[in-house]
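Progress report, Aim 2. The chain analyzed during this reporting quarter is listed below.
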Amino acid sequence: MSARIIECVPNFSEGNNMEVIRRITDSIEKIDGVKLLDVDHGKATNRTVVTFVGDPDDVVEAAFNAVKTASELIDMSQHKGEHPRMGATDVCPLVPVSGVSMEETVEYARSLAERIGKELSIPVYCYENAAFSDKRTNLANCREGEYEGLQKKLSDPVWKPDFGPAHFNPRAGATAVGARDFLVAYNINLNTTSTRRANAVAFDVRERGRVKRDGHPLTGKPVKDKNGETVMIPGKLKEVKAIGWYIEEYGVAQISMNLTNISVTPVHVAFDEVCKSADSRGLRVTGSELVGLIPLSAMLDAGRYFLRKQKRSTGVPDSELIKIAIKSMGLDELLPFKPEEKIIEYRMRSDEAKKLVSMDLEEFMNETACESVAPGGGSVSAYMGALGTALGAMVANISSHKRGWDERWDEFSAWAEKGKTIQNELLKLVDEDTNAFNMIMGAFKMPKNTDEEKKERKKAIEDATKNAIMVPFSVMETALGSYEVIEEMVKEGNPNSVTDAGVGALAVRACIKGAYLNVCVNTEGLEDQQFGEDIKAKAADIVKQSDSREKEIVEKVLGRL
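Predicted structure tokens for the chain:
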């Protein structure tokens, strides 16, 4: 399961006073689990756009802090700026990045809007996916009249705020809170300096398309509909805005695109469609560049897409998928593409304490061997399971490329993907086991001077112990699923690698038995004995299944030698 991450991109009506901006961003960074990614302030617009990401609950808390701070520091009655605006915090959109659905993001946005209205007495309109009515979906409608027309607007029952009072707050104005899809700013490079030719490609692909004309497609008279509106010929890509321009710095023309919903038109689809259009016009795409950040899933999807076009297995490590995506789309043509800086999830983890799974083999071994009690058997068990599953995935990848088996690449790719999913989940559990142990130690260190403190400490110990039972149990459940991959590779995979799959089965069995020992030891002293007995019984059944599966697989391996 991927980490639950949402992005928040609030726009504040202050772009000149750096102290005000600093205090707003400080209020965001006070919340643990939130990563501030960007602060972009404009003097002419007198507006600052801030980008931060994290766990949904943490992001919502940080967003509220920022709105509150802005309402205290920014006086809209004194504000002047080029950009449309109606409040100290003008807009505050939430964007799902990974592990969170749009439906969930809408609920987070509405709860944030409700809290802003209730606790800060600021009128709030919900827009885009969070809107309660079609008329309020469009941000421009919500902001029509801007700050200067807000008092009159609030007196109109049609524009009663979704949350907060329907009266004018002269200092803070009003705020729009929304939920929208992730927007990717993406430029594609052409082997031309002609803006006109670049625009021709842009009009081919963008959703709005180009003006329909009578006679000559360039000089003919625009066609009007019965209402007098200009008729457009739609482009090929939905949820895409594009224009051609010339970049003097690089000496090339580009197609500058905003992909407003990458679940509808992903980056790799936009790239390929521009390639087709450019080729039809005698142009060539030479590369591309991402402006800003991109979710990890978008890069992994692109890597899989280009591997599938080559009829190669997609069940390879994330690093390989990212490398394929970079090279296929020429993302490093103009500037180096650094995944640790351009991918949201990697930016978030860049300043985290080093995890066990990020250590090299020698570091992990030495960390395990040192005198501290963690990492211990639980983490090692999870890692053995990950390695065993990886061997099954390896055989699938080797089999997908075996000479004479070309027509079976997709079959083996699917098995490799399944193995990769399991091994990645087990890798996360390597650190989860050590974290669970640390939670128990933390609970035991809680104060116990008063009856209330003793009660809280006792509950914390019980909760932490249950967590320390469920982590190795999750290891067992997850690892059990890898036998399906391993057994299939023993039966159908490359015969030259059958013993690798067999070693994988041995490692998975050791993983499950080791995790079982951890389940058992952590149930000792648990107050909720029924909970402990139930989990031990389920764990014992998994061990029984595991022993049987491993025995069958090893016998099949020996039978093929």
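The chain has three domains: 5-179, 184-349, 356-560. The chain is about 50% helix and 15% strand. These observations will guide the mutagenesis work planned for the next reporting period.
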